[in-house]
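Appendix B, Record 12. Input sequence as logged:
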Amino acid sequence: GAGGGGASSSSSSSSSSSSPSFASLPFVDCCDGVCGAGGGGAPTSSSSLSSSSSSRAWWCGRAGRSAVLWCVGALVVVWVVGVVAVSVGWDSFARSSCERKVAEIQQTKDATIYKLLSDLQKQLDKETALLKRLNSQQRIQENLAADVERMQGATKAISNNVEQQQQQQQQQQQQQQQPHSKTRVTPSSDPATPIDASAVKATAVPESSPQTTEENQVWDVNAITREAAPVGIAVLVFCYNRPEALRTTLNQVFEYAPISGFPVFVSQDGDHAGVTQVIRSMASKPVFHLRFVMDDSEMRRLRGADYKPNFRNYYRIAMHYGWAFRKVFDGLGYDKVIILEDDMLLAPDFFDYFAAAATLIDQDSSLYCASAWNDNGMGHLVHDTSALRRTDCFPGLGWMMSGALWDEFRDKWPTGFWDDWMRLPENRNERSCIMPEVNRVYTFGEGGSSGGQFWNQFLKNIRLNKVKTPFRAEELTYLLSDQYDERVRGWIRNATEEIPIQDAVRRIRALPHGQGKPDSSDTYVVRYNSLKQLDTVLQPLGLMTDHKAGVPRTSYKGVISFRFQQRNVPPSPLAVPTKPGLPAHPLDEYGYGYRILLVPTPDHSMAGVTRNVIA
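Logged structural output:
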């Protein structure tokens, strides 16, 4: 184009005819400020203009493209940042909205739960108030029933007293008809029992007084006083509703008891007429009659969380025992009491055994009772009739209690299951009982409150001792704690062999017949590490597996000692005794027996054995 009004040259004209004009290029608009004339500039030559135009066209095209790309990239970045910002903002908004919603729901839920709890509490308060009213009405009815029962009992007692007075008047009239009678001898109530002159008390009767005051006092129930109570070790016989069993037991007591030193008290639960008659028939022995009257309000007081309605008799027995112990220990002042039940036969040395045991209990504070019973006293497990042992498991069934122990138990005596209660670790307090190897008492009560538990399997095969041992003349210091521990250690240390428990039953059963000795020269030790493992030996050999408070029956510091005996005659099942108290087989049918010691390992898992100084 022209600049400054000048005409174009001929070369320009010819040039423009052969190539496109500059203005016609596609990027000329973007380069107007560079390619066009400005300020009246002079025209350039055709060659310089063509060179400059090509260079500037290339630069302008590249820069344009870069700018466009940068713009597009910036827009993308802005868009991404915007998207991210919006996403983060929305997430924060959504989270806060959810939290607010959850908080609202929680508040609503808490309010609903609180309202429900308030409604339930109100309903519970209403039902509690209603229950209290019902209980109050029930107590009133029970008290009325108890009052009626007491009135009936009082009426019956008055009737009995009137009957006794009439009988006494008739006896006085009969005796007045024979004024020259000086002495009265009361024979045994059982006509089949011969009269033992040493056991019959002759009472002088003045002519002017046909009946003595002493005998009247014996006949009265609960009439004995501390001043009138004879000195010695009291014999306390518990009974309920088995008159003939009681008669058998009392006949045994008076057959073997010395003339003095063992006054007999019979504690009767209730007023069974037959039992009362048996006690009265023994009045001249003498027998002192105690009577326990069950207060139903006491039984009702027990009906809490631990009360077991199916075992009502066990609660009644425990309360009867507690009442009788208060009577003889606190009321009559005895220091030692032998406890019997109304279904027991005695060994000839029963009283001599307890007289010697009383001395040991006074000497050794680690002894808290003595018993005439061995839980594992079956015929094939015992031999030595003079041997005594210590045990950590309370045996019961013919046992002696001291006044010191009663002082300890008085305020916490249980309302049920008294024998298991005495076996608890907190009551036993790591103390032991004395027991004989061969039983000094036999129970023939197949029924009773326990329903004959263990009778067929164990109790009927218990061997009752028939050989009298003068225990008071024997040296019994080996039963004192330290000496007895060393004695058992010696048995273990000098044992013939230690048998693995996995092979124990087979090896013990295979011991030769009649070869054992009554000393430690034939002793076999079997070690166990748990009660479950111990049962694998006890059950096949015929020993009891009914452990008490984690302590095996007859065990001392975990050690169970027994004599396994083989019969000298061809083996057969144990025979049932033909009469109560007789051994299943005569003594000469067995060999001496091998001493078997079941000893816990140091890592035993018996919770009831707190000390294991022997093993």
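Residues 46-176 form the longest helix (131 residues).
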